Amino acid sequence: MKELYDYNIWANHKTLDSLEPLTNEQFTAPMGGSFASIRDTVVHIIGAEWIWWQRCIGERPKGLLDPASFPDVAACRERWKEIEDGYLSLVKNADLDEDVTYINRHGNQYTYSIGKILLHNANHSTYHRGQIVTLLRQVGAKPAVTDYLVFIDERSPQ
Fold first, then answer.
1. Domain annotation for the chain: domains and CATH numbers
2. Do residues 132 and 26 lie in contact, with contact meaning Cβ atoms separated by under 8 Å?
3. What φ, ψ does residue 3 adopt, rounded to 5°?
């Protein structure tokens, strides 16, 4: 699980790096994807990671983050740092078999183990990073390569 979260953090950083060259207009322009813009897609990932982390540590967040609170890539990067640190602590210290019960924003109650939540969260982030790749190509920008084996190669001494 630690390696999966090291990878997830690395991939999130690579994705943010690929957004740095965008103009504010490109970052926030309506794109017609699952979310209104590249920014809104990034904030969805951040918000989902935040909600799942909060649930795993016993908090009960009521909703996702507001994209308008993230005017630029730097604001996204800053918020993600706290969440990353939280996940690294969680992966290191939590009982992955411990159950978490929560009520989602639609009022439905669910119970999953922390380990299953962590796997879901990393997979969810990967899915939406893939959407960002498509959106970046649509604006003529170069997306990051976030393949797991690239992560492995970058970590390994040559």
1. 2-147 (1.20.120.450)
2. no
3. -65, -40
